[in-house]
Amino acid sequence: MTRIVVLTGAGISAESGVPTFRGADGLWEGHLIEDVATPEAYERDPDTVLAFYDARRRALRTVVPNAAHLALARLEGAIGGDLLVVTQNVDDLHERAGSRNLVHMHGELRRALCLACGSRPAWDEDLIDRPACPDCGERMLRPDVVWFGEMPYELGRIENAVVAADVFVSIGTSGAVYPAAGYVALASAFGVRTVELNLEPSDAAVPFDDARAGRASELVPAWVDEVLSARRAGAERR
Ligand code: OAD
């Protein structure tokens, strides 16, 4: 059985209408990264940071998964636990498309993190009004998103899956943020075949074995079809 690890970034959600991070002007929806995505920014000006993520959480209600998210869910439906999707995205479009074997390494907009008790409750409302934590009652909830300088989630699980995979596929990510940006080098070092599906080739430190340029909504379904027909052909030969 072919084991596949897929890493996704903002590019897979772009065609759903979720903005990517690195526009030409280096701003995130009009904000400097260091003003909204660092622990220091939150210490300095929590209202600005909470309002920024509240707006992004609300915006999720207006978007739906696209053909790329749906194709990955279709692949999981066919090969089950042989596929792990690791996303850097904090939106919920993979799970809404049907992906279940999924890691949100940079956290989730629809979850809060309690700075008092450490719980991570599912969260759909605004945080700016300092609601109480459902677990401990303290009013110290922040978005459960990983900021610059913080440790992403489940790194051990991800690295173990990458090195044990047959194929590592990177979709819609610029390869600018580590540790995710290093997974192609890790995969290559362990002899794992690497594939990139991105609007334009990224600046990966190690070249992909197969780099395809185009829109995720076209490239991902086509790649999933290829994987499934290769598996069918393999099964028929046996
Ligand atoms: P970026 O905004 O850096 O990169 C998005 C990538 O998607 C670019 O390489 C685009 O070329 C590509 N792209 C855009 N539209 C596409 C489409 N329709 N089809 C395919 N590809 C397309 O976003 P990420 O690489 O995800 O981290 O950024 C990584 C991390 O940086 C984010 O998770 C976030 C940010 O800092 C944290 O918040 C910790």
Automatic annotation (TrEMBL):
Pfam families: SIR2. Transmembrane segments: none annotated. It comes from Microbacterium psychrotolerans. SUPFAM superfamilies: DHS-like NAD/FAD-binding domain (SSF52467). Keywords: Acyltransferase, Cytoplasm, Metal-binding, NAD, Transferase, Zinc. It catalyses: N(6)-succinyl-L-lysyl-[protein] + NAD(+) + H2O = 2''-O-succinyl-ADP-D-ribose + nicotinamide + L-lysyl-[protein]; N(6)-acetyl-L-lysyl-[protein] + NAD(+) + H2O = 2''-O-acetyl-ADP-D-ribose + nicotinamide + L-lysyl-[protein]. The keyword Zinc applies. Its EC number is 2.3.1.286. The active site is at residue 106. Belongs to the sirtuin family. Class III subfamily. Residues 1-236 form the Deacetylase sirtuin-type domain. The gene is cobB. Its cofactor is Zn(2+). NAD-dependent lysine deacetylase and desuccinylase that specifically removes acetyl and succinyl groups on target proteins. Modulates the activities of several proteins which are inactive in their acylated form. The lineage of its organism: Bacteria, Bacillati, Actinomycetota, Actinomycetes, Micrococcales. Binds 1 zinc ion per subunit. Substrate binds at residues 53, 56. CDD domains: SIRT5_Af1_CobB. Zn(2+) binds at residues 114, 117, 133, 136. It comes from the Bacteria. NAD(+) binds at residues 9-28, 88-91, 172-174, 198-200, 216. It is found in: Cytoplasm. It is an enzyme of class 2 (transferase). This is NAD-dependent protein deacylase. 2 residues (Tyr-53 and Arg-56) present in a large hydrophobic pocket are probably involved in substrate specificity. They are important for desuccinylation activity, but dispensable for deacetylation activity.
